[in-house]
Amino acid sequence: MVEDMTTPLLSDSEAPADALPVCLTSPTVAILGSGDFSRSLALRLVASGVRVVVGSRCVNRIPSGLFPDAVELRNQEGAVSQAVCLVFMAVFPEHYCSLLGLQSALAGKVLVDVSNGAEMNIHGPSNAERLAELFPDSLVVKGFNTVSTWELQTGAHDGSRQVMICSNSTEGKKKVVQLARQMGFHPVDMGGLSAAREIEVAPLRLFPSWSGPVVVTFLLFLFFYGYGFLRGILLPFLAQGGHNAFYRLALDLVNESLPAVALVTLALVYFPGLFAAWLQLWRGTKYQRFPSWLDNWLQRRKQLGLLSFLCAALHGVYSLCLPLRRITLHRLVNTAYRQVKAGTEEPWDELGVWRSDLYLSCGVLGLGVLSLLAITSLPTVGNTLNWREFTFVQSGLGYIALTLSIMHTLFFGWDFAFHIEAYPFYMPPSYLLAVVVPCIVLVCRCFL
Amino acid sequence: MVEDMTTPLLSDSEAPADALPVCLTSPTVAILGSGDFSRSLALRLVASGVRVVVGSRCVNRIPSGLFPDAVELRNQEGAVSQAVCLVFMAVFPEHYCSLLGLQSALAGKVLVDVSNGAEMNIHGPSNAERLAELFPDSLVVKGFNTVSTWELQTGAHDGSRQVMICSNSTEGKKKVVQLARQMGFHPVDMGGLSAAREIEVAPLRLFPSWSGPVVVTFLLFLFFYGYGFLRGILLPFLAQGGHNAFYRLALDLVNESLPAVALVTLALVYFPGLFAAWLQLWRGTKYQRFPSWLDNWLQRRKQLGLLSFLCAALHGVYSLCLPLRRITLHRLVNTAYRQVKAGTEEPWDELGVWRSDLYLSCGVLGLGVLSLLAITSLPTVGNTLNWREFTFVQSGLGYIALTLSIMHTLFFGWDFAFHIEAYPFYMPPSYLLAVVVPCIVLVCRCFL
Amino acid sequence: MVEDMTTPLLSDSEAPADALPVCLTSPTVAILGSGDFSRSLALRLVASGVRVVVGSRCVNRIPSGLFPDAVELRNQEGAVSQAVCLVFMAVFPEHYCSLLGLQSALAGKVLVDVSNGAEMNIHGPSNAERLAELFPDSLVVKGFNTVSTWELQTGAHDGSRQVMICSNSTEGKKKVVQLARQMGFHPVDMGGLSAAREIEVAPLRLFPSWSGPVVVTFLLFLFFYGYGFLRGILLPFLAQGGHNAFYRLALDLVNESLPAVALVTLALVYFPGLFAAWLQLWRGTKYQRFPSWLDNWLQRRKQLGLLSFLCAALHGVYSLCLPLRRITLHRLVNTAYRQVKAGTEEPWDELGVWRSDLYLSCGVLGLGVLSLLAITSLPTVGNTLNWREFTFVQSGLGYIALTLSIMHTLFFGWDFAFHIEAYPFYMPPSYLLAVVVPCIVLVCRCFL
């Protein structure tokens, strides 16, 4: 979107006279360290009209052209002495101790800790807290570690990129917040320095809120796929000695498992809400905390819903692909061939026509309603809704989607579940297993 | 998005005196009332680093653990006396009178009215205005009622949740705006206290801008569905005594009505713009107000367009489902059977092949262009476009989509409309009815 | 989204007392000129609680009712003298000279240049710079030209509409930024006045970052379409004298070209990254600038990826349409007819069944992964990702999508490419051409 950062970058070097008045407004900022992050940070600061001095232990080893011309390169003491108030610590946290000699020079100044956490370990103090211990007379602020060097270089003109900031010093936090805004970022105050650990591990996280729901969905898929394999392919193969239906593995079985997964996952979205409501009724109060597993579950409903939508959409596309399969052509031609051999037209099957039309209709509409739910879960769309609208969409439309999906399954199943042939090896068809939890949820909902 | 208002307001250089109270940091805030909203508000304030005192008439009846430990519980007088400047009124508006005894204690303080409107009635003063009458010496600010208790409890770290605020007191508004930002919300200044009524009913609204377009689309669907039922099912059934085509109700007829609705709705998106242009030409000025019905219509174009896209997309999915139907298999097999009986291959129908390919192509491309339009109507995507790009997409691509949809219909209709068999009971096919308005719009557009 | 600007507009006339305190806070602002932009700007300022005076050379010729009642109309001198600090220049930049008489009256005041650039010419000073030359004693600020009159009138309550601002005067910029926020816009500081040219041409741009990728994609489509036309239609027609396959132009050939385009475009997304990595390895440093063509290419990867997704999605929908074609029915019926004539059922083709299921599966999954990529490229979704998540999605999922697409193509191709019949006129099938670059990219990736 916004990659037009080049102009200010260039205009600075092209027309230094231009930049002057801007520089007068922002007091010089120092950056200790000359690595990648330091370089990108310097670029961004210069582009935002800030005078920057970079302090390094070995200034002479920095290749020329690495930093923009407007940046002054000094040794560490020189850089710190030039900084009016803000000093970025762009060195590895392991090397904080080596800066102890600057303690007095840094006293009273704002030190910005931009380091990431080393591992996901929860124990031990955060880098920023250790820095604050080492430099008790400085105002330590945690921030900018969640921003990548790429974002620093390209800029974020739309100001939507968040920069999480925390500090025990209100004064220091205010200065950094102001600078972050000048750089085009969206500073978010996370509170005191004790929040630093959370900020430090934030860049290491990989979709933390998705891991649980993805695992659940994947296990459900494995279960239904394995069950279908046993019931429809392996056991018949062993029993009938060689009747080979393994060709169903690639598409048929996947398309049989996906709707079951989608249905159960959608039910899992609404189950914890019902359980919570029942718990409140049973306890007689709504002010007691829920057990933490229920709390977690409640907070993952959005992810479960989106995964359910993903499975349902894949099932839809797979089903639409069915007429394109080689086997469909094969069956059609042979059906026609047998009809001709039998010497009669295929009789009109009114019930069969209604059944297929009804389950297709319910499926299409259910998927349509799920799409609306998925769209409103986009941040900007959801933010424009008031509470009543949000409830209408997520609860009202959600239950409509669930009902349509159940009807889709029941019309698909028709009365076949009442015939003994549906239970080879005493195993019910998988859509019958899948429809149990959703039906329970729907019945409970009607009673509550 | 935009919460950097603090800087100019506080900016060190301008008004150092201003910055002081914020640094202290936040003076104690009082909340009167101990209900759900009070509890959630207290949680959020504490989490944002604000000292909170809750005032209740019966402090002893509050269960321990209901409020976080950091919150002080007092009687109402005690709470108000501790509040430095801000007092939240988290009591039912009916009970405002019962607080009249606090009038002098509340004088000069900022009272934040967080109540919702009781009903959708437009008459009578708003709660906030009544509060201002009762406490003439206080600075009444309306706000926070649009935020749900859930959002208060979970926070809104991304600062995108809006809080609408209005007041006759600039001073009071400024304080509340500042607090809202500290809490992570996005305050929006709605002007004087007369805007309070609108703010109070905002949480009661249910998609106000959608009701009109949804009703129009639904009525169009009813019309086309009913028309198709009469023409294709009921009248033939009555005339031929028992020729049963009722199986077409579930899918066929829906899939026949949806494209007609989509086409007419899409034309309705572009009709008011043409009418407005014609009106301006006729009046000879563009500075006269449009009649309000036209104004409303113009403001609903986006919703109409999205509903048209929804119908078109459903039509697309339904059409792709056709080969999956039981009846399709039935027809295919019997066609082959009859071909065999006749003893000849089916002859090559070049025109028929071109016709089907052309109407499928136009349909797919039209839906594709409509999808692009729908995507750019997402807030964040649309906000990145400049006016010229917006016009190019909405008007340029929009008319391309309309043209492709009309071509889709015309290729589908081919020359069948010129044959008498297309008019059973003197009723033209519904696609012929649907294509009239879009054609008029397209022709007018070419002339204007 | 936000079209409820009416209330503040009305509240002015309803409750004049109401408006007073708000007005006291914002010093009077003057607008020179009485055109469309001036009118809309005045509306917006009044709605935001700012006192406005409009200065025009011929006040008497302004029709009554054109400006809201709260706006005062004066001659130019009168308007400027009332302005406390801010004067908007809503006149054509060609007429700036005619205002030279106001030079002393405007001295020390902030002049906001709202003009657009006349053409896309890069040479010559920007309007704002010319204004600054003409009025050296005023503080010239560029801004608001990127906002349309429509947005001014309807307002932007969600504060997401950007207003780009630049100036050499920090003081002036600060005042304008503050006003922009009061008006509900999102001011973005673009630096010194030398950035004015860029801001002035911004509204004239039409998707600048899309033109390159769109042209590339279109040329690729032309190539594959033309190649397919030659190989499959024209040359066979000429060679066999009259074997007419021109019916394939409308759908078949498009659906054959689209996947080839999608595949090559997707490879082009990942090619520059690999080349850049190789360049860094070869140069032995990552701090040397890339050649500008590579830089441009790297910056267009997102657009290329979205166009690849568009082509892939269209290919998907076209393919699903295949069973709906007239020719499909024709072929099916005649296949069955021939089978009957031959007197045998069609034999079971296990390999053919596997092949069709596998290429359909890979295609569906590849498109699904591409959809996830497209969704995360939406600004709000992408902004919530940290760097690690972004890399996982864009690089990890991206290569999975590429691999699945290649497998889709290879399964589709099967072993046909090893038969001589696949090379009529010595021309290989187009999917074979399309799969070359992606395979190279995939192999290079494994090595790097």
From TrEMBL, chains A, B, C:
Residues 28-117 form the Pyrroline-5-carboxylate reductase catalytic N-terminal domain. This is Metalloreductase STEAP3-like. GO terms for cellular component: endosome membrane; plasma membrane. InterPro entries: Fe3_Rdtase_TM_dom (IPR013130), NAD(P)-bd_dom_sf (IPR036291), P5C_Rdtase_cat_N (IPR028939), STEAP_metalloreductase (IPR051267). Pfam families: F420_oxidored, Ferric_reduct. The lineage of its organism: Eukaryota, Metazoa, Chordata, Craniata, Vertebrata. PANTHER family: DUDULIN-RELATED (PTHR14239), METALLOREDUCTASE STEAP3 (PTHR14239:SF8). It comes from Sinocyclocheilus anshuiensis. Belongs to the STEAP family. GO terms for biological process: copper ion import; iron ion transport. Keywords: Copper, Endosome, FAD, Flavoprotein, Ion transport, Iron, Iron transport, Membrane, Metal-binding, Oxidoreductase, Transmembrane, Transmembrane helix, Transport.
